Amino acid sequence: MVSIIKHYFDCTDNEDRTIIIYVATLKVLGIGIPFCSYLFNNGETTWEESSLQKVQVKSSGKTRISIPALQVTGAWNTNDKCISEILYSSAGKQITWNCFQPRSEVRVHIGSQVFEGLGYAETITLPFHPRRLPIDLLLWGRYLSPGYTIIWIEWQGAYPLKKIYVNGIEQSDAKIEHDKITFGNLGMTLHFKKAQPIKNNPLSALANRYPFLKYMFSRRFLSSQEIKYSGTGVLIKNDEIIDTGRTLYETVHWKR
Questions:
Q1: Are 79 and 105 in contact (CB under 8 A)?
Q2: Alpha-carbon distance 216 to 219, whole Å?
């Protein structure tokens, strides 16, 4: 039996820099295997580091993390109310999405470097093997600015699902396209500008670093492809720009 609890944190700043941090626990037959990592992109180049060190995540209104093995510390101070959803339920087991920091003031230290900007944090609880996910394509992303928080999740496949929120309010009529999201009821469009891929790897890249994963996941599953993009977002209404901010989004092609 395999289950996963994954904490995700990110931060983007005004210098086109992006930081993504994962803190996760993979449980196999009741035995927990900790994992933590960070991805840093300076607008041109991406660095990644990871460790099998257990990490404590302390959360209330402010979330603090410390990963000594990676020389990373960070604090996320929330500005918005939590969003929580049960995304999928099967045989009494539920995939729970807890977006406990939709928009945060963030300060992150990586070694001697300090970064400040707006960020996002969530927890996903997956109580069964990921190959059972009824998804062919996952679309996820967020747009943050001082005035707007836009979050989206879309599943395509056997169990289609779409959740899109603008400032905490779900928008059932919104449509996600490769370069924009349109909001019919709000009369707005979010355009993705200057989007750069900051990660484009199959899951097998992680398994090559930690070979024990090859015994838990099939070769086909590990060929699933993850692409992350970071860039600028422009919010338009009545042909006028009403807001600009930073976008961070991904597509994952699942293979089961």
A1: yes
A2: 10
Q: What does each of the 256 residues of the chain score in pLDDT, given as a tens digit?
A: 789 999 999 999 989 999 999 999 999 888 999 999 999 999 999 999 999 998 888 776 689 999 999 999 999 999 899 999 999 998 889 999 999 999 999 999 999 999 999 999 999 999 998 888 889 999 999 999 999 999 999 999 999 999 999 999 999 999 999 899 999 999 999 999 999 999 999 999 999 999 999 988 999 999 999 999 999 999 999 999 999 999 999 999 998 8
Spell out the residues 6+ positions from residue 109 whose beta carbon is closer than 8 angstroms to its own. 71, 72, 73, 74, 115
Helix (H, G, I), strand (E, B) or coil at 167: coil
Q: Which amino acid is at 98?
A: N
| Cβ 184 vs Cβ 166: under 8 Å | no
1 SS3 class: coil
Which residues form the domain of 185? 2-253
Q: CA–CA separation, 147 vs 141, rounded Å?
A: 17
Q: Are 88 and 97 in contact (CB under 8 A)?
A: no
On whether the CB atoms of residues 2 and 28 are closer than 8 A, the answer is yes
Q: In the chain, what are the helix, strand and coil shares in percent, each to the nearest 5?
A: 10, 65, 25
Distances (CA, A) of 12 to 32, 95, 183, 243, 246: 31, 27, 24, 16, 7
Hunting for tokens 């257990």 — which residue is that?
54
Two structure tokens written together for 239: 């042909």
Instruction: Determine whether 111 is exposed, middle or buried from the number of CB atoms within 10 Å of its CB (0-12, 13-18, 19+).
Output: exposed
Question: How many domains does the structure of the chain reveal?
Answer: 1
